[in-house]
Amino acid sequence: MNYFKYYKSIILICLCSLVMANVQAQNEWEVTTEQDKNLSPFMFDDEMVLEGKISYENSCTSCHGMPGQADYTPMAPPPGDPGSNQFQLQNDGALFHKIKLGRGAMPKFEDVFADDETWNIIAYIRSFNENYKQPIPDLGGVEIPKYDLKLAFDENVDKLVVKVFSKEIPQPEVEVSAFVKGTFGKLLLGKIQTNELGIAYLDVDPKLPGDAEGKLHIMVKATKGYALAKLNQKMKIVQPTIRKSAIEGRHIWSTDKMAPIWLKVSFFITIFGVWAVLFFIVFGFRNIKKAGREDDVMIE
Amino acid sequence: MNDTLSKEILTDDQIEQDLLKNINWGNKFKLWLAFLAVSLIICLYFYYQQIEHGLGVTGLHDYVSWGIYISNFVFFVATSLIGMLISSVLGLMNVSWVKPLARIAELVAVAFAMVAGLIIITDMGRPDRLLNVFMHGRVQSPIVWDIAVVVTYVAISILLLYIPLLPDIALCRDKLKNVPKWQQKMYKILALGWKGKAKQFKLMNNYTRILLILIIPIALSIHTVTSWLFAMTLRSGWDSPIFGPYFVSGAFVAGCAAVIITMYFFQKNYKLDKYITIDHFDRMGRLLVLVALVYVYFNINEIIVPAYKTNTADAKHVQEMLSGHESIMFWMVQLGGLIIPFLLILFRPMRRPLPLMLISIVILTGAWFKRVLIVVPTQLAPYYPIQNVPEKWTHYMPTVPEIAITTGSFILVLIIMSVLAKLFPVIPIWEIKEEINHNKN
């Protein structure tokens, strides 16, 4: 009897939500012109796409599936494939707005993602559209500056010094982020704005493992608006790492060369010792023979 | 005082006559040898097949690369260990009743140890590359240690069989005039000009004593090193620090059983009941109870300690044994091959020659299957699951050639023991004479 009750209520809830969804689907998903015209403050690049991919897979795949595969969850209304024209024909501003506010079954991500993270997701979605060309706003004749980066290491305070110039003029308030490239990923050293002298200081742990020469592979990125500069540089910062062979050390069984001396000594001494005794006895047969030939008188 | 020997007063002549009687090439023996030879040739044909077509003719595969060949090797090494226990440990302790049995024990030791080395070769897919093992062997490898100690043990066992045999060979040389010429010549060479002089006895006793002492560590190490072949490998069921003593104690059980069986057949065939008496069987039975008790103790340790830990790979291995896939064989071996026989021998009537011999055959069979249980199941439970391989690789079943080659090793042991028992007296004549003279006085 109880089961029946449960079934009834479950069916009821399902029906209700279906009706609600349909009602909402009939409403237009309104985006104001201003919102539609909103543009990304960053140029989309591979890193944004990569970070967007991670956010997308964590928060969007469950309904929208893999972009371009049309493997979204069958729901009413359908969530749709972000790789499809239905999505790609919309402006960046409209996508930004819809992700932020949501509607019906589409949750509101305003509180989940910061603006730049939302733009990462859009960068990722756009990466499935070969024809997409990112619109850049009218900057009113202002040129996008080209940054030059200079790196140094202050070993007194263990800080990485990043200087940002444009046409040899130091650039203040530039967002600088620095990473150390590792074997399987990158380690964030910090994100900081340059000071009025165009310098950003980032802490480096001097115990980080470097290469054989004590060098770390530093990756620095400087952004401000649409201006972007990147620099990869190997810098002598930490102590050299002496790499040991994986089969070095206490692996007595690995190769013949690794045989410890105590083992060789005890093995060969034992074996040769025992065989020496055996040969002594075999040679002793001659004595037995000789003793047989001797006269009894001589023994007594 | 030796009270196991017959109470009858025996003269030296009679002893010589009784104990030299077995040295003849009777028709019965020729028939027996021919039977063995034909059986061996059949088995060798299967070995020829294996050389021709490789190890593919066996049931061995990528996972179980040590099947009944290596189990059989372990069994042979185990059985050969008894020579050390009887002639050396008991001999040095002046346990006088074992004296008539010492040579039989040495015979068993030599035969089994010699063939053990050959069994390793049958497990090699390319026996023509055997020399590489010696040329490129690493001193860290337990297999190299094993080869070294097995070869050494065979050498010591042969010397220990040969040196106390000198007075008896001289006796054969002097008394046996109706044997073939080559045999007379052989006795003459092997007797080393033995004239029974005091100095010769002194030298012989010295050498025997050295060998008796030397054989104890070597014998312990052959089976300990054999156990290390397994224990030094990180595999569930093998990775155990008590494997050395566990194997050694098991070896004494198998060896005692083998000696009892050999004793029985020598006594019956060569009519030696005045020298191998009911009392000897009784005492060997008691010795078997003692070593079986030690072995049971090690078995309990080997099972209960990993089983207590419930979730390790070793515990799963034990679980397979106790109630899983291997449980039928496991309980047959443990109860049928060890516990029940050992409980039976506790009763005196069961220690009479015939029942004791039959029980020993059961124990020896159990001991053989016990080695299979040690060697095979572990290989079928690797840490990485067996997947994407042919279905037959998930289990192991020996094939006909494999069984035939293994049988061949037993036939070879029987041939070695039969021939040696036909060439030399199986009971040390001079020691019996001494013993009886001693008793008389």
Automatic annotation (TrEMBL), chain B:
The chain crosses the membrane at residues 31-48, 68-92, 104-122, 142-165, 210-231, 243-266, 287-308, 328-347, 354-374, 403-424. Its main location: membrane. Keywords: Cell membrane, Membrane, Transmembrane, Transmembrane helix. GO terms for cellular component: plasma membrane. It is a multi-pass membrane protein. It is found in: Cell membrane. Belongs to the NrfD family. PANTHER family: POLYSULPHIDE REDUCTASE NRFD (PTHR43044:SF2), PTHR43044. This is Polysulfide reductase. It comes from Ancylomarina euxinus.
